Amino acid sequence: MKTLNAIVIVLLCTFILAPTVVIALTSFGASEILEFPPRGWTLRWYGYAIAKPEFQQAAWNSLWIAVVTMLISAPLAVLASMALVRGRIPGRELIQTILLAPLVVPSIVIGLSILLASARFDLPLVEARLLIAHVLITLPYLVRTVTSSLVRLDPVAEEAARVLGADSFRTFWFVTLPALRPGIIAGMIFAFIISFDNVSISLFLASAKTNTLPLSLMSYIEYNLDPSVAAVSTLLIFMALAAAIALERLAGLRRTLGG
Amino acid sequence: MTKLTCNSLTKSYANNRVLNDVSADIAKGELVTLLGPSGCGKTTLLRAIAGLSMADTGSILLDGADITHTPIHRRNIGMVFQSHALFPHMSVTDNVAFGLRMQGIQVDERRNRVGDALALVRLNGFENRMPHELSGGQQQRVAIARAIAINPSVLLLDEPFGALDRKLRETLQVELRQLTKNLSMTAIFVTHDQEEALVLSDRIAVMNGGVIQQIGSPAEVFERPANQFVADFMGFENMFSATVVSQSNGSVRLTSRGLQVEAINDCNAVSGEVKIGLRSERISFSDGSGKDADGVNRLPGKVAQASYRGDRWVYAVDTAVGVFSVKGSADAEAKGVGQPVVLAWERAAVRVFGS
Q1: By CA distance, what is A182's nearest residue in B?
Q2: How many Cβ atoms sit within 10 Å of the Cβ of residue A160?
Q3: Which of A226, B166, B330, B341 makes a 20 to 30 Å CA pair with A13?
Q4: C-alpha span between B172 and B182 (Å, rounded)
Q5: What is the pLDDT of residue A123?
Q6: Same domain (yes/no): B253, B325
């Protein structure tokens, strides 16, 4: 029974990790085209990819869009969570469902509909519509993580602060917000990754000026098959991995605070 | 000197009246317990005083000033909750200093007053701990320190020891009483535990159905409950219907299912159908030799059930009037089920309640 368990676990991990490993190994391949397993080893594709202006520009676009998205989403999510958890608003369940809807609606539909809407309403900036779309798809993650932090906070702690002389703003600032911090940070990391990796929405809404890194990789790969794409992908994977570790650390932190 | 006055406070949730014309005066330095079953309005009354909920009608005066519409954070009230409600992300020091910080008190003075407050609850040396690193009793001590650090006009406690085990609860009860007495702090304590109320209070207000049923010293409430509800809540296990036969000079004769009962009536005139109440520890087993004191009520019966409680035996005794609960000494030989006994009690042990 134990060996069977072990076999299943190993197979599962292999299944999950295999694509990552394949891409990482390919990125060190010495030949001019993507091949697995590589026949020789080199680091030059990393240098090539990093030095490539179109990748640089795309990476910069992806970065600032992800950062701004997460900075817009986070306060919105905090406000929404306060209303959903602490407020007495009619139709709370419905609003919560609507807020989480972008998780289940195919993002390609969201991209298309925002494209149509922005054309109709003459949205001036291509950046604006891209940001709106990214906020829309990242908000559910933040609402989820912030809400779960807020649910953990005993509302009596907020009452205690009020009785101790804090008005409602100071109660929020000194008691509620710090308690939400793990949820906000975890949600922001999620939002960053979701926004940074997004293809389906950016595909509709990005322009040449706001080309994101995933889009730029896609168009590059259409005409070129050298391992620089694998090198960029590997860098992205490590970034996501770092974020995941940070997330786990924070989740652990949150458990301690809850206990 | 009156510290806090509640004037005809009324509050309803939907159609449920949780406070019904509640009035009370609390003197400076007094510790008053609001005692009653859940849903009796005790917590609602406390929260109305704190400002956490608003009474529909009536007014609250603190130090002579009407605070009925004063916002919560300007009332200068200390409050301790059942769930300690400490701020989880703040150290013990920061928790206790919170109220002082809100008052804009400078760091140096803050540090001194936090130290004083922690000393009062015997928690020096715990300044830098986080709340989750403390035991339940320590958490509640920090909560008390946090409430008294601001030197509140009145200290409110909402079943603060409810979640703690019995021994710890008893220790904290004694400590809290000493603390409030040393500081001459006016305090209102909510509990459903009559023993806790007896230990702590200068006065007990027994509440039921949104009404204060009786307010008085622990001994008054315990010995001379004003009505059947208070008697029931204060542990009058034996309660029977009876009819008044005659009364004279503070003494009443009654009958209950053929049994003649004599009682002292020191409060109100009673007549007709009444209830009589009798505490189990005031009943003894008569040896039936007839040498009992004058004015003793006597009743034969049979032991129906015996249960051992460590420091005593508790018997259920079947009689013509009904089943009596009687306490017996743990030293005395245990009485067996089915054993015939004669119960005896003094006139003064019987309380009469108009129904």
Answers
A1: B89
A2: 28
A3: A226
A4: 15
A5: 63
A6: yes
pTM over 0.90: no
Q: Which domain holds residue B159?
A: 2-230
Nearest to A164 among B71, B89, B102 (CB): B102
- Assign residue A230 the CATH number of its domain: 1.10.3720.10
pLDDT at A136 over 70: yes
Instruction: Look up the CATH number of the domain holding residue B40.
Output: 3.40.50.300
Starting at the edge strand found earlier in the chain, the sheet holding B2-13 runs B16-27, B2-13, B57-62, B65-66
| DSSP single-letter state for residue B355 | -
DSSP state of B266: -
Contacts of B132 in chain A (CB under 8 A): 256-257, 259
Q: Kindly report the nearest CA distance between residue A58 and chain B, in angstroms.
A: 40
Using a 10 angstrom Cβ sphere, with 0-12 exposed, 13-18 middle and 19 or more buried, the burial of residue B147 is buried
Paired tokens of A245: 């570790």
Q: Which two structure tokens, joined as six digits, stand for B289? A: 């030799």
Domain boundary (B191, B211, B230) is at B230
Q: Verify whether the Cβ–Cβ distance A156 to B77 is below 8 Å.
A: no
Residue B82, CB-side half-sphere exposure with 13 Å CA sphere: 10
Task: List, for chain B, all residue ranges whose pLDDT scores fall below the cut of 50.
Answer: 294
Q: Token pair for residue B236?
A: 């009058």
